[in-house]
Amino acid sequence: MSRFQRFTRWALLAACLLLFAAGGLLLCLSVGWEGEPFVLLGLMTAAFGGVLAWFFFADDREGKKDWLTLLLGAAVIGGLILARLALFPHAARDYNIYLSDWIAQLRQTEGLSGLALTVGDYNVPYLYLLLAIAKATRHDLYWIKAFSVLFDLLLAWFAARLTARWAKSPAAPIAAFAVTLAVPTVLLNGAYWGQCDSVYAALILGCLLMALENKSRRAWLLLALAFSFKLQTVFFLPAFLLLLMTGKIKWRHVWVFPVAFTGLLLPAVIAGRPILDTLSIYVNQTASYPDLVLNAPTLYRLFGDQSEFALFQAAALLLTGAATAGLLALLWQRRERLEDRWIDVAYVFALLLPFLLPRMHDRYFFLADALGAVYAFRHPGRWWVPVLTVGASYCGYYYYLFGASELMPPVLSAALMGAGLIAATHALLKEKKLPA
Predict the structure, then answer these.
(1) What is the reported pTM?
(2) How confident is the model over 313-328, as pLDDT tens digits?
(3) Lower CB count within 10 Å: N or C terminus of the chain?
């Protein structure tokens, strides 16, 4: 890249940031932001600047990207971030019932003693964040959402880097970044709902990327970080096991996982939280909800009223185990074909497990939704598969967040998810060779 090109791109980046900051300021004034709007806006502007710097320079050292691609990408990505900021003032039901109460309890503690407090049903790393927010600000809703939005950007960045591994067009990673941010469930999860599913999903996409780049220790570390935030990381474990079995990830680096996971728990234990209580959080989570399905488009929505089938949860676990083991065995037999289809493997398991497991919530297809964006770029001819699965996933969001009634009959949303799962699995097992 010539000096003139580099100077011009820096000038373009600066102009994009100024426009973004001006648009954000107008947005804050129009929607009535409270708290520390300039600090939050500065944080988001800096994050946007980091994204643009990567696309403008780190991913285009030879200056191959045209100006139209860069400007259009900057405009779309900046607009998607501003759309998230517009949603910050909305307090969803989960915040009003749970998060605000947890923050209030943590705010009443002295110093770091809140680390030992048993609050909510999240694992302790997320409680560290809530404690920091409780102590630093009275406008906790905005900072909870800002944390999730930053991981939305990290999620999209890893999606872009995965896409860049095979994409021939220099515009493809920018498009993958934008599409990932634009997935409706990704947009609503953090910025509107105040949830943090983008944290574990971003770390899992990073884990997959590190595995494909033969950075085994980093893959183990990112898996540990993901698991420390969300139990739903188990949806990636079958794909991770295949990566281990094929040598993409090394068994000798397994020590990284327990060291990282327990290291994140230590501050709470040192502060006085009982060790057994700290280690049993996920066990308690699984026992909290007795229903066979909780508003998720799973197999069991096909049976109508699931209350009559609550006794069949053990059978559902056996079915999930058998299906997972069977698919692992089939993929192991075809392991020579897996080198160029790890996105497919991760996507299929991220659909299969929540589709068959009992007690699944509406948000539990989030990892599949994120992977679906990358899958669509890997298989442009099968773009309709993630459209089906994201559409089915969105139905659960719609009912919980907006609707007194379902967007579509639960049987239909479950059928759409099942159709997407079948199509993706069939393609994974039958296709002999992917195009280069």
Answers:
(1) 0.94
(2) 888 899 999 999 999 9
(3) C
